[in-house]
Amino acid sequence: MDFTEESATAAVVASFDATPDPRLREILTSLTTHLHAFVKETKPSRQEWEHAIEFLTEVGHTCDDTRQEFVLLSDVLGVSMLVETINGTEVGGTEATVLGPFHMTESPSRALGETIDEIGTGTPCTVSGTVTGLDGVPLRDAEVDVWQCNEDGFYDVQQPDTQPAGNGRGVFRTDENGRFHFRTVVPSHYPIPTDGPVGRLLNATNRHPYRPAHIHFIAQAEGYEPVTTHVFVADSPYIDSDAVFAVKKSLITEFVADGDRRHAEFDIVLAKVDQ
Length: 275
Ligand code: BEZ
Ligand code: FE
Description:
- This protein is about 25% helix and about 20% strand.
- By secondary structure, the protein is of the alpha/beta class.
- It is globular and about 75 Å long.
- It starts with 7 loop residues before the first helix and ends in a 5-residue tail after the last strand.
């Protein structure tokens, strides 16, 4: 049969008929169907299609061991958050959000109450909370891994000449009451990397590159599903327009002023691993 606009989709879908893995077949069938519908709807010129391929090629060339431009593309298109949301946590559990690209080094182990700020500038702040199961039972010895940017909006890995490795990072273990607490400085809002093709896409669409101020968390305990999440600073700029769509209402937390310090309380609820 001739390849026509009408017959194209069925022909390509049929070419996957012998795929032994049923899930792979389902995904390729759906991808073909949606991709063909997109092309039929937008009718790209040959030049536009070439431009699209060049863009994706450049996204690939911008990736290396420490830079993942494809993840960034997925982030700004809302796909990363869609995947997080579809795979959501059980009702009542702490909601998950994007991991982001700055968890590439191991956080130093720190004692409860220690500071993760090794520089001493910025607004001092304490963060505490309890890790519990869905039933409210406190989880002792749960691991709470945190990382954040400094008050100027940079992670340690972005400023190796001015920030010591491990600044803004720490791995804590909850006490016998499931409690954790640490000292830090209030993080700043900051722009995602804009010096690559994803930055050009934002620029071409008049979108800003900023993320509201947040502290990243990965919490895990034996027998429970780990959660990757953030605590967002409630009064941060861009709290309503995160460049990567990662804000969930339940994660917005008041950093309450107490003299010249601030304090945030952020409880984490984990769901049991399915038995
Ligand atoms: C971050 O919060 O570290 C982040 C997340 C997505 C894209 C860029 C940065
Ligand atoms: Fe971040």
